[in-house]
Protein backbone atom coordinates (compact mmCIF):
# COMPACT_ATOMS: atom_id res chain seq x y z
CA UNK A 1 0.00 0.00 0.00
CA UNK A 2 0.95 3.61 -0.40
CA UNK A 3 1.30 4.00 3.36
CA UNK A 4 4.24 1.63 3.55
CA UNK A 5 7.10 3.99 2.91
CA UNK A 6 9.41 2.77 0.20
CA UNK A 7 7.91 -0.63 -0.40
CA UNK A 8 6.92 -1.23 -3.99
CA UNK A 9 8.27 2.16 -5.01
CA UNK A 10 10.89 1.73 -7.67
CA UNK A 11 13.29 4.63 -7.77
CA UNK A 12 15.72 3.26 -10.30
CA UNK A 13 16.35 0.01 -12.06
CA UNK A 14 17.44 -2.54 -9.52
CA UNK A 15 17.30 -6.23 -10.45
CA UNK A 16 16.86 -7.36 -6.83
CA UNK A 17 13.99 -4.95 -6.34
CA UNK A 18 12.35 -5.99 -9.58
CA UNK A 19 12.66 -9.62 -8.60
CA UNK A 20 11.05 -8.86 -5.22
CA UNK A 21 8.19 -7.02 -6.90
CA UNK A 22 7.72 -9.88 -9.34
CA UNK A 23 7.71 -12.34 -6.45
CA UNK A 24 5.03 -10.35 -4.66
CA UNK A 25 2.87 -10.18 -7.76
CA UNK A 26 3.07 -13.90 -8.32
CA UNK A 27 2.27 -14.53 -4.63
CA UNK A 28 -0.84 -12.35 -4.92
CA UNK A 29 -2.15 -14.37 -7.82
CA UNK A 30 -1.35 -17.66 -6.08
CA UNK A 31 -2.93 -16.58 -2.79
CA UNK A 32 -6.33 -16.42 -4.41
CA UNK A 33 -6.39 -20.12 -5.25
CA UNK A 34 -4.38 -21.35 -2.26
CA UNK A 35 -7.25 -21.26 0.21
CA UNK A 36 -9.68 -23.03 -2.10
CA UNK A 37 -7.06 -25.69 -2.85
CA UNK A 38 -6.22 -26.47 0.76
CA UNK A 39 -2.63 -25.23 0.62
CA UNK A 40 -2.84 -23.60 4.07
CA UNK A 41 -2.47 -25.40 7.36
CA UNK A 42 -1.92 -24.50 10.98
CA UNK A 43 0.92 -25.57 13.25
CA UNK A 44 0.80 -25.24 17.02
CA UNK A 45 3.55 -24.18 19.42
CA UNK A 46 3.18 -24.98 23.14
CA UNK A 47 3.19 -22.23 25.76
CA UNK A 48 4.46 -23.25 29.19
CA UNK A 49 4.42 -21.84 32.71
CA UNK A 50 7.95 -20.85 33.76
CA UNK A 51 7.29 -21.80 37.37
CA UNK A 52 6.97 -25.54 36.73
CA UNK A 53 7.10 -26.14 32.98
CA UNK A 54 3.44 -27.09 32.66
CA UNK A 55 2.01 -26.49 29.18
CA UNK A 56 -1.17 -24.40 29.37
CA UNK A 57 -1.75 -23.31 25.82
CA UNK A 58 -0.59 -23.03 22.25
CA UNK A 59 -0.15 -20.44 19.54
CA UNK A 60 -1.60 -21.27 16.13
CA UNK A 61 0.75 -20.33 13.30
CA UNK A 62 -0.15 -20.33 9.63
CA UNK A 63 1.76 -22.36 7.03
CA UNK A 64 1.51 -22.28 3.25
CA UNK A 65 2.79 -25.01 0.98
CA UNK A 66 2.71 -24.46 -2.78
CA UNK A 67 1.62 -27.38 -5.00
CA UNK A 68 5.24 -27.89 -6.14
CA UNK A 69 6.19 -28.45 -2.49
CA UNK A 70 7.80 -25.09 -1.61
CA UNK A 71 6.90 -23.60 1.78
CA UNK A 72 6.28 -19.86 1.83
CA UNK A 73 7.08 -18.17 5.14
CA UNK A 74 4.38 -16.11 6.91
CA UNK A 75 6.72 -13.11 6.98
CA UNK A 76 6.65 -13.26 3.18
CA UNK A 77 2.98 -13.91 2.50
CA UNK A 78 1.10 -12.27 5.40
CA UNK A 79 2.06 -8.71 4.31
CA UNK A 80 1.07 -9.61 0.74
CA UNK A 81 -2.24 -11.08 1.91
CA UNK A 82 -2.85 -7.91 3.94
CA UNK A 83 -2.17 -5.63 0.97
CA UNK A 84 -4.36 -7.73 -1.30
CA UNK A 85 -7.23 -7.80 1.22
CA UNK A 86 -7.03 -11.57 1.25
CA UNK A 87 -6.20 -11.61 4.95
CA UNK A 88 -9.89 -11.18 5.79
CA UNK A 89 -11.03 -14.56 4.49
CA UNK A 90 -7.73 -16.20 5.39
CA UNK A 91 -7.95 -14.85 8.94
CA UNK A 92 -11.48 -16.21 9.29
CA UNK A 93 -10.27 -19.60 8.15
CA UNK A 94 -7.42 -19.48 10.70
CA UNK A 95 -9.74 -18.57 13.56
CA UNK A 96 -12.19 -21.33 12.64
CA UNK A 97 -9.48 -24.01 12.34
CA UNK A 98 -7.91 -22.95 15.62
CA UNK A 99 -11.28 -23.00 17.41
CA UNK A 100 -12.10 -26.42 15.97
CA UNK A 101 -8.81 -27.82 17.25
CA UNK A 102 -9.17 -26.17 20.64
CA UNK A 103 -12.60 -27.73 21.11
CA UNK A 104 -11.40 -31.09 19.80
CA UNK A 105 -8.54 -31.13 22.33
CA UNK A 106 -10.74 -29.80 25.14
CA UNK A 107 -13.05 -32.76 24.68
CA UNK A 108 -10.20 -35.32 24.41
CA UNK A 109 -7.38 -36.62 26.63
CA UNK A 110 -5.35 -33.49 25.78
CA UNK A 111 -7.71 -31.38 27.86
CA UNK A 112 -8.40 -27.70 28.15
CA UNK A 113 -5.69 -25.52 26.62
CA UNK A 114 -5.77 -21.87 25.72
CA UNK A 115 -5.48 -21.22 22.00
CA UNK A 116 -3.70 -18.07 20.86
CA UNK A 117 -4.54 -16.84 17.36
CA UNK A 118 -2.78 -14.02 15.50
CA UNK A 119 -5.10 -11.34 14.22
CA UNK A 120 -4.10 -8.79 11.59
CA UNK A 121 -5.02 -5.15 12.08
CA UNK A 122 -6.75 -5.38 8.70
CA UNK A 123 -9.23 -7.76 10.33
CA UNK A 124 -9.74 -5.41 13.28
CA UNK A 125 -10.41 -2.49 10.93
CA UNK A 126 -13.00 -4.50 9.03
CA UNK A 127 -16.52 -3.94 10.26
CA UNK A 128 -17.52 -7.58 9.90
CA UNK A 129 -14.80 -9.18 12.05
CA UNK A 130 -16.74 -9.06 15.32
CA UNK A 131 -19.71 -10.80 13.74
CA UNK A 132 -17.67 -13.44 11.99
CA UNK A 133 -15.83 -14.13 15.24
CA UNK A 134 -19.19 -14.55 16.97
CA UNK A 135 -20.38 -16.94 14.26
CA UNK A 136 -17.19 -18.99 14.44
CA UNK A 137 -17.39 -19.30 18.23
CA UNK A 138 -20.93 -20.57 18.21
CA UNK A 139 -20.56 -22.90 15.24
CA UNK A 140 -17.45 -24.47 16.82
CA UNK A 141 -18.96 -24.48 20.31
CA UNK A 142 -15.81 -22.75 21.56
CA UNK A 143 -15.62 -20.82 24.83
CA UNK A 144 -14.16 -17.37 24.04
CA UNK A 145 -12.27 -17.43 27.35
CA UNK A 146 -10.17 -20.23 25.86
CA UNK A 147 -9.36 -18.22 22.74
CA UNK A 148 -6.69 -15.53 22.89
CA UNK A 149 -6.44 -12.98 20.11
CA UNK A 150 -2.87 -11.77 19.57
CA UNK A 151 -2.51 -8.24 18.31
CA UNK A 152 0.86 -6.75 17.44
CA UNK A 153 1.83 -3.88 19.72
CA UNK A 154 2.16 -1.27 16.98
CA UNK A 155 -1.28 -2.18 15.63
CA UNK A 156 -3.04 -2.39 18.96
CA UNK A 157 -2.14 1.25 19.48
CA UNK A 158 -3.23 2.34 16.01
CA UNK A 159 -6.39 4.35 16.61
CA UNK A 160 -9.60 4.63 18.61
CA UNK A 161 -11.60 2.49 16.21
CA UNK A 162 -9.21 -0.42 16.60
CA UNK A 163 -9.22 0.12 20.36
CA UNK A 164 -13.04 0.04 20.38
CA UNK A 165 -13.06 -3.22 18.40
CA UNK A 166 -10.55 -4.79 20.79
CA UNK A 167 -12.77 -3.77 23.69
CA UNK A 168 -15.81 -5.31 22.01
CA UNK A 169 -13.90 -8.56 21.51
CA UNK A 170 -12.83 -8.49 25.15
CA UNK A 171 -16.46 -7.89 26.12
CA UNK A 172 -17.42 -11.01 24.18
CA UNK A 173 -15.09 -12.96 26.45
CA UNK A 174 -12.00 -13.33 24.26
CA UNK A 175 -8.64 -13.06 25.94
CA UNK A 176 -6.36 -10.42 24.37
CA UNK A 177 -2.57 -10.62 24.05
CA UNK A 178 -0.21 -7.91 22.89
CA UNK A 179 2.32 -9.49 20.54
CA UNK A 180 5.92 -8.45 19.80
CA UNK A 181 5.94 -6.08 22.75
CA UNK A 182 8.91 -3.76 23.00
CA UNK A 183 9.24 -3.13 19.28
CA UNK A 184 6.45 -0.55 18.99
CA UNK A 185 6.07 2.85 20.51
CA UNK A 186 3.23 2.48 22.97
CA UNK A 187 2.68 5.04 25.63
CA UNK A 188 1.92 3.54 29.00
CA UNK A 189 -1.43 5.35 29.15
CA UNK A 190 -2.41 3.77 25.82
CA UNK A 191 -1.32 0.38 27.06
CA UNK A 192 -3.47 0.82 30.13
CA UNK A 193 -6.54 1.47 27.96
CA UNK A 194 -6.17 -1.87 26.22
CA UNK A 195 -8.10 -4.70 27.85
CA UNK A 196 -5.20 -7.12 27.39
CA UNK A 197 -4.37 -9.91 29.80
CA UNK A 198 -1.10 -11.09 28.24
CA UNK A 199 2.03 -9.19 27.22
CA UNK A 200 4.41 -11.05 24.89
CA UNK A 201 8.06 -9.97 25.07
CA UNK A 202 9.40 -9.81 21.53
CA UNK A 203 11.89 -12.49 20.55
CA UNK A 204 14.59 -9.93 19.68
CA UNK A 205 15.11 -9.12 23.38
CA UNK A 206 15.04 -12.77 24.39
CA UNK A 207 17.66 -13.67 21.78
CA UNK A 208 20.08 -11.05 23.13
CA UNK A 209 19.48 -11.81 26.82
CA UNK A 210 22.77 -13.54 27.56
CA UNK A 211 24.90 -11.17 25.49
CA UNK A 212 23.45 -7.65 25.43
CA UNK A 213 23.06 -6.13 28.93
CA UNK A 214 20.39 -3.67 27.71
CA UNK A 215 18.15 -6.57 26.66
CA UNK A 216 18.06 -7.80 30.22
CA UNK A 217 17.00 -4.37 31.47
CA UNK A 218 14.37 -4.10 28.76
CA UNK A 219 12.99 -7.55 29.59
CA UNK A 220 12.98 -6.67 33.30
CA UNK A 221 11.09 -3.45 32.57
CA UNK A 222 8.52 -5.20 30.40
CA UNK A 223 7.88 -7.77 33.14
CA UNK A 224 7.38 -4.95 35.68
CA UNK A 225 5.11 -2.92 33.41
CA UNK A 226 3.04 -5.96 32.53
CA UNK A 227 2.60 -6.98 36.15
CA UNK A 228 1.87 -3.39 37.17
CA UNK A 229 -1.00 -3.42 34.66
CA UNK A 230 -2.23 -6.79 35.90
CA UNK A 231 -1.06 -8.78 32.89
CA UNK A 232 0.65 -12.12 32.50
CA UNK A 233 4.03 -11.75 30.77
CA UNK A 234 5.12 -14.36 28.22
CA UNK A 235 8.53 -14.45 26.56
CA UNK A 236 8.65 -15.66 22.97
CA UNK A 237 11.54 -17.32 21.18
CA UNK A 238 13.34 -18.92 24.12
CA UNK A 239 16.06 -21.17 22.69
CA UNK A 240 18.49 -21.72 25.56
CA UNK A 241 18.34 -22.76 29.22
CA UNK A 242 20.29 -19.57 30.05
CA UNK A 243 17.59 -17.36 28.53
CA UNK A 244 14.96 -19.33 30.42
CA UNK A 245 16.81 -18.95 33.71
CA UNK A 246 17.25 -15.18 33.27
CA UNK A 247 13.56 -14.71 32.44
CA UNK A 248 12.48 -16.84 35.38
CA UNK A 249 14.70 -14.77 37.68
CA UNK A 250 13.07 -11.60 36.31
CA UNK A 251 9.65 -12.96 37.30
CA UNK A 252 8.43 -13.64 33.76
CA UNK A 253 5.37 -15.92 33.94
CA UNK A 254 5.34 -17.93 30.75
CA UNK A 255 7.38 -18.95 27.74
CA UNK A 256 7.31 -20.22 24.22
CA UNK A 257 10.26 -21.22 22.05
CA UNK A 258 12.38 -23.88 20.40
CA UNK A 259 13.83 -24.82 23.82
CA UNK A 260 10.47 -26.50 24.50
CA UNK A 261 9.13 -27.25 21.04
CA UNK A 262 8.89 -25.89 17.51
CA UNK A 263 5.45 -25.26 16.08
CA UNK A 264 3.98 -28.67 15.12
CA UNK A 265 1.09 -30.04 13.06
CA UNK A 266 -1.89 -31.04 15.21
CA UNK A 267 -1.11 -34.79 15.61
CA UNK A 268 2.47 -34.13 16.81
CA UNK A 269 1.27 -31.35 19.06
CA UNK A 270 -1.25 -33.71 20.70
CA UNK A 271 1.48 -36.27 21.33
CA UNK A 272 3.80 -33.59 22.71
CA UNK A 273 1.15 -32.41 25.17
CA UNK A 274 0.35 -35.93 26.32
CA UNK A 275 4.09 -36.59 26.83
CA UNK A 276 4.66 -33.33 28.69
CA UNK A 277 1.60 -33.11 30.91
CA UNK A 278 2.46 -33.09 34.59
CA UNK A 279 2.42 -36.61 35.98
CA UNK A 280 -0.97 -37.34 37.47
CA UNK A 281 -0.97 -38.11 41.13
CA UNK A 282 -1.70 -41.78 41.70
CA UNK A 283 -5.24 -42.34 42.93
CA UNK A 284 -5.40 -42.76 46.69
CA UNK A 285 -5.51 -46.38 47.72
CA UNK A 286 -8.11 -47.02 50.39
P1 LIG B 1 4.55 -14.11 15.89
O1 LIG B 1 3.08 -14.10 16.09
O2 LIG B 1 5.36 -13.21 16.75
O3 LIG B 1 4.97 -15.63 16.05
C1 LIG B 1 6.17 -16.06 16.60
C2 LIG B 1 7.14 -16.49 15.52
O4 LIG B 1 8.36 -16.88 16.15
C3 LIG B 1 6.68 -17.68 14.71
O5 LIG B 1 7.22 -17.54 13.39
C4 LIG B 1 7.37 -18.85 15.43
O6 LIG B 1 7.53 -19.99 14.62
C5 LIG B 1 8.69 -18.21 15.76
N1 LIG B 1 9.37 -18.83 16.88
C6 LIG B 1 8.83 -19.36 18.02
N2 LIG B 1 9.80 -19.80 18.85
C7 LIG B 1 10.98 -19.53 18.25
C8 LIG B 1 12.35 -19.74 18.63
O7 LIG B 1 12.68 -20.26 19.70
N3 LIG B 1 13.30 -19.33 17.72
C9 LIG B 1 12.99 -18.75 16.54
N4 LIG B 1 13.98 -18.40 15.73
N5 LIG B 1 11.69 -18.53 16.15
C10 LIG B 1 10.71 -18.91 17.01
P2 LIG B 1 6.32 -17.84 12.10
O8 LIG B 1 5.44 -19.02 12.33
O9 LIG B 1 7.25 -17.85 10.94
O10 LIG B 1 5.39 -16.56 12.02
C11 LIG B 1 5.93 -15.29 11.79
C12 LIG B 1 4.90 -14.22 11.99
O11 LIG B 1 3.88 -14.32 10.98
C13 LIG B 1 4.15 -14.29 13.32
O12 LIG B 1 4.93 -13.73 14.35
C14 LIG B 1 2.91 -13.50 13.00
O13 LIG B 1 3.16 -12.13 13.10
C15 LIG B 1 2.66 -13.87 11.56
N6 LIG B 1 1.64 -14.94 11.50
C16 LIG B 1 1.77 -16.29 11.59
N7 LIG B 1 0.57 -16.91 11.50
C17 LIG B 1 -0.34 -15.92 11.36
C18 LIG B 1 -1.79 -15.91 11.22
O14 LIG B 1 -2.48 -16.94 11.25
N8 LIG B 1 -2.38 -14.69 11.06
C19 LIG B 1 -1.65 -13.52 11.05
N9 LIG B 1 -2.33 -12.36 10.88
N10 LIG B 1 -0.32 -13.50 11.20
C20 LIG B 1 0.33 -14.68 11.35
MG1 LIG C 1 1.91 -14.19 17.68
MG1 LIG D 1 5.46 -12.36 18.42
MG1 LIG E 1 6.13 -11.38 15.06
From TrEMBL:
Transmembrane segments: none annotated. This is EAL domain-containing protein. The chain holds residues 474 to 759 of 759 of the full protein. Signal peptide: none annotated. Residues 24-277 form the EAL domain.
